[in-house]
Amino acid sequence: MSMAGNLRKVTSLGGVGGLRRVARLARRRPRVDLSHPARSPLGSSVVNCVTYQDGVRTDARGDLVDAVERVRRSRDGFVWLGLHEPTDSEFAGIAELFDLHPLAVEDAIEAHQRPKLERYGETLFAVFKTVCYVEHEELTATSEVVNTGEIMVFVGADFVVTVRHGRHGSLGPLREELESDPGQLAKGPSAVLHAIADHVVDDYLTVTDSVHADIDHVETDVFSEAGARADPGRIYQLKRELLELKRAVVPLSRPLEDLATRPIRVVDPEIQAYFRDVSDHLLRAKEQIAAFDELLNSILQAHLAQVTVAQNEDMRKITAWAAIIAVPTMVCGVYGMNFEHMPELQWRYGYGMVIGVISAACLALYRGFRRSGWL
């Protein structure tokens, strides 16, 4: 049965108008699997819906409601429903089917949330900020370096609902990787939650490595011979992008700590050890970001110091040339006065003597400034 048929049946059973509208949307547009990187992002918000029994993907029989009821009757397995940027009307029926809390539903639809972990009854709600590195040929003062998105995860005893926002952070490859390890997937929905957290944190480490390369490039430019003429806007841009990355990484520490240490009913105790490993990787990403921030501050201060030194050198040169020019200016100013009785005005060699004195004084000043490094 098609996804439109599945949603229509959920609507008829639950009496939810939101799913009816989703069904009409699915009839107008063919469902597209957004988890596949080569597919078009156009289509309904439903990315995929899969049932797992003993860690093995089962054949799609019946509709979404049938799958949920079958899992709950057998008390074995779970349903994984993936969504991409759903609207209020599209998510309403799904929220009623899985008894999701309205506050968590609002957060999942609106997005722009901080990483967090919340419990609503028997349901766990987790928010992860996804990041990706934006490739660029040359770093400029306006280059986008880090792009962020979000993944919201609802975890229950027999279901996982993932809501993704943004054009990256696809869970398709992650789903395939999980399905290749039935033993891990058999541990239930918490195994999916761990895999998503691990996937997100691994992306943090990948992005920090790429940002490190940009910082190295800027550092090389600043400490080159033309460092004083380097564009400081690139340093500020890297600091802004690093702040965006920091907002995604740092707040996730507390949720991962809770998942790794606090007993949570829907989290398998064996999975908690895996969350501790993810928390260690996150700590490494945090330390790298803190180190990058300090390094950028040092680079910026070094650049400002170079600019100050260059300006001082320019001022010394200007001052030295002004002192040299002051000698002929003074002498010529004196002999330019219109007095009748002035020494040497009628002397035959007076002009040559004045020129010689001016030249000798200017040469002496020039050599003195050269020896002192002012010229």
How many helical stretches?
12
- What is the helix fraction of residues, given as a range? 55-70%
Largest sheet, strands/sense/barrel: 7 strands, mixed
The succession of helices and strands, N to C, reads HHEEHEHHEEEEHHHHHHH
Cα distance, first to last residue? 86 Å
Strand order of the largest sheet: 2-1-3-7-6-5-4
Unreliable sequence segments: 1-43
Number of strands: 7
Q: Average pLDDT, to the nearest integer?
A: 81
Using the alpha-carbon principal axes, give the shape: rod-shaped
* Global structural class: alpha+beta
Sheet-strand content, in percent, reads 5-15%
* Gyration radius, rounded: 35 Å
Could you explain how this protein is built, in words?
This protein has helices at 3-14, 17-28, 64-74, 88-97, 102-110, 172-179, 182-185, 189-222, 232-249, 253-261, 269-335, 350-372; strands spanning 46-53, 56-57, 78-84, 116-120, 123-133, 146-155, 159-165. With 375 residues, it is α+β, with helices and mostly antiparallel strands. A seven-stranded mixed sheet has the order 2-1-3-7-6-5-4, with helices on both faces. The longest helix is centred in the last third of the chain and has 67 residues, at 269-335. The protein is rod-shaped, with a radius of gyration of 35 Å.
